[in-house]
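Retro notes
What went well: the complex prediction finally ran end to end.
Inputs used:
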Amino acid sequence: MQTGTTLTQDLRVRGTDEALVRLMDGVATASKVIADGIAQGDLGDALGTAETENVQGETQKKLDIVSNEIFISTAQASGAAAGLASEEMEDIYPLVGDGEYLLVFDPLDGSSNIDVNVSVGSIFSVLKSPSNNPTTEDYLQAGNTQVAAGYVVYGPATVMVLTTGQGTHCYTLDRAVGEFILSKESLQVPQRTSEFAINASNQRHWEEPMQAYIADCLAGKEGPRERDFNMRWIASMVADVHRILTRGGIFIYPIDAKLSAKNQGGKLRLMYEANPMAMLVEQAGGAASTGRGRIVDIAPEHLHQRVPVVLGSRDEVAEVEAYYRR
Ligand code: AHM
Ligand code: MG
């Protein structure tokens, strides 16, 4: 039976370094196992809340912990990574062997959506390891040094979206054969959009430029933007970004007074949420900014650093930046 080009075959055709192919194969294996656990729903034993908190003081779901362990074991088995860092682990996690990459990941993003059967995802970023025995400092590389980035969305279909710096491509899990199959090549985010995604319940806490930008979108045809805008918010970054990569739009999680009061620079994490999404969107012709500058140019200060995120259609991201400059 002819099923198409598998993820591994496609990476090889693109001339990807063999160790990176093995690492991506490990990520693919992890996500197949996670997809299976999620698909079991209430019939499996992975749903529900664990008795623990992660490094950021957030309650962990059982599936957060299980997914983290799956990522660790498949990355270790690939022999291609020198170490890992994850949303679910306070410190870096060294791996045995002489792997040349660092894998930084959020094993299960949007986990508040698991129990209500809404799409969730995994997000990952691959960096070159400067040494065989990497220290925390070795991980603190700007997003523009990423050698690969991707996410897997566990939705009606399980889909991996991946870039190795040669465009952004989409692979759909064929459950019958257990392989990710190339399903869309060279995604392109439409340059212009009339659809935004933001959690509007935080509106009163936003900075002035964000208040003004959204107010002008909401004013529609009669307002300064002279057109009507539509709104979406899934509260699952992977699912929201997947929509934007598919049909355009802008995704925003701004800094606000509530986050600043907790000494957070934003809600989303730079190294394993903002940076990989920024690379994917830029490789698809879109843009990714904090509102004040390109996300991938930020020099990380610590592993779990948080930043404001504005990403998607290029013209609209530029529009938001213009509100911040004014
Ligand atoms: P998580 O890593 O704890 O799951 O948090 C990240 C998620 C994103 O997927 C999503 O965009 C955002 O948090 C939703 O936040 P909110 O519940 O404030 O709307
Ligand atoms: Mg997350």
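What we learned: The pocket of magnesium ion (ligand 2) is lined by residues 87, 106, 109, 273 (CB under 6 Å).
What to try next: split runs per interface for comparison.
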